[in-house]
Specification:
The chain is about 35% helix and about 20% strand. The chain is α+β, with helices and mostly antiparallel strands. The chain folds into two domains: about 5-140, Creatinase/prolidase N-terminal domain (Creatine Amidinohydrolase, Chain A, domain 1, 3-Layer(aba) Sandwich); about 145-395, Alpha-Beta Complex (Creatine Amidinohydrolase). A six-stranded mixed sheet has the order 4-3-2-1-5-6. Helix 6 packs across helix 7 and helix 8 runs antiparallel to helix 9. The longest helix has 30 residues, at about 145-175. The chain is elongated and about 75 Å long.
Length: about 400
């Protein structure tokens, strides 16, 4: 799928009052630039290139003579350099006196965006340019859903909740029929559900029982898989999308107990996590409704404060949520003031997860994950089926 769109980028630059976007790469170091410029990651790139998109007018390609044709598929005037003096001369003509966006984040606050090395940043600044982060520009260009993507995603989001219920039903039937059941078998049950619906996933779902649920990225295999018994705690995290390049993802996490009455220790932790999830949602929703700019780190704070105040802050060991696009972890704002400080704006027509968790090593872990979407008129909605309200009693 071709992604580059000059008029769209120039419209965004105008709306953000930025003079231009300088996309730079050396030996595949900037996958964000390669993605935006429709350059396959397998391309033979051994020399530096720069592609300057002005707020208006014709772009400029600065390429090495050895690889002069690498940007020929893009519009613009070509400047071919051989030595560093000619490179410096071309770049000075392009950037001097301008406010330039690059893949940079002050103090590396958002490492997902910091793809340009410090030396290159210093180089461009020394030529008389002011450099700003391209983070929100990338969000507007690459993380915004189309109406068609949103409409295509809705049945997938609903189906994931349906599949969770079916997986819980499968667990119940297998155990009541006295059949051997493992995490891997539940995982394969869900993969079969995906196959029947012709959904795509990049990795099988997480099925974590008891202490394995306290490992956020645990995943069973056929050779490494815990048996499931009555009285066990089960976490299911699944993600999928339509099997097409421009499809966007859905990603949810539920928890269940293999019994009828939920033990208090599970109820207590689940309620804290669910309250944190809802606190983040309500904070973002009210902020957008009031017209205030809301940034990713603020959503993380809203959820994390609930867990910290409940005394479990040290057991919440990851960010609260991630951007969702055609990539599962997309290029928009993450809800994160823990692993990073994500100051990117939460913008209309973008999507993200809210998934706080409490993980008690050697015992169990609870994560409750929903997907959210900001409409064009800046309203926050949860996509998919209902949010989980309690630990699911699998044998009830």
């Amino acid at each position: 799928m071709k992604k580059f769109n000059l008029s769209k980028i120039q419209n965004i630059l105008g709306s953000m009052n930025i003079d231009g976007w300088l996309l730079y790469d050396f030996r595949g170091s900037n996958e964000l630039a390669l993605n935006i410029l429709d350059i396959p990651p397998t391309s033979h790139l051994t020399r530096r290139f720069y592609y300057f998109i002005p707020r208006s007018g014709v772009p400029v390609k600065v390429v090495n003579g050895i690889e002069a044709g690498n940007l020929d598929h893009l519009p613009g005037d070509r400047k071919t350099y051989a030595n560093h003096e000619s490179l410096t001369s071309y770049l000075t003509d392009i950037v001097k006196g301008k406010k330039i966006a690059m893949e940079y984040s002050y103090l590396n606050a958002i490492p997902y965006v910091s793809k340009v090395d410090a030396g290159t940043i210093e180089q461009i600044k020394s030529l008389g340019a002011e450099i700003v982060s391209s983070a929100d520009l990338i969000t507007l260009f690459d993380a915004v859903w189309s109406e068609a993507q949103f409409e295509e995603n809705r049945p997938v989001a609903d189906a994931l909740t349906e599949i969770v219920y079916k997986a819980f039903g499968y667990i119940k039937k297998q155990l009541l029929d006295n059949k051997i059941l493992t995490e891997h078998l539940v995982q394969q049950f869900i993969m079969n559900e995906f196959a029947e619906r012709q959904y795509f996933t990049d990795h099988p779902p997480i099925i974590g029982v008891n202490e394995n649920s306290a490992n956020p990225h645990y995943s069973p295999t056929e050779d490494k898989s815990k048996k499931i018994h009555i009285g066990d705690f089960v976490l299911i995290d699944l993600w999928a999308k339509l099997n097409k390049d421009d499809a966007v993802w859905s990603d949810i996490t539920w928890t269940g107990y293999v019994g009828e009455e939920i033990p208090e220790k599970y109820v207590k932790i689940f309620n804290i996590v669910a309250d944190a999830r809802d606190a983040a949602f309500n904070f973002i929703q009210s902020g957008l409704k009031s017209g205030r700019k809301v940034r990713g780190f603020e959503g993380d704070d809203a959820a994390r404060n609930v867990i910290v105040n409940a005394g479990y802050g040290e057991y919440f060991i990851h960010r609260t949520g991630h951007s969702i696009t055609t990539a599962l972890h997309g290029t928009g704002a993450h809800l994160d003031n823990f692993e990073t400080r994500d100051e990117r704006l939460i913008l209309p027509s973008t999507s993200f997860s809210i998934e706080p968790g409490i993980y008690l090593p050697g015992d169990f872990g609870v994560r409750s994950e929903i997907d959210c979407y900001v409409t064009k008129d800046n309203k926050l909605i949860a996509t998919g089926g209902e949010s989980q309200k309690e630990v699911y009693p699998i044998l009830s």
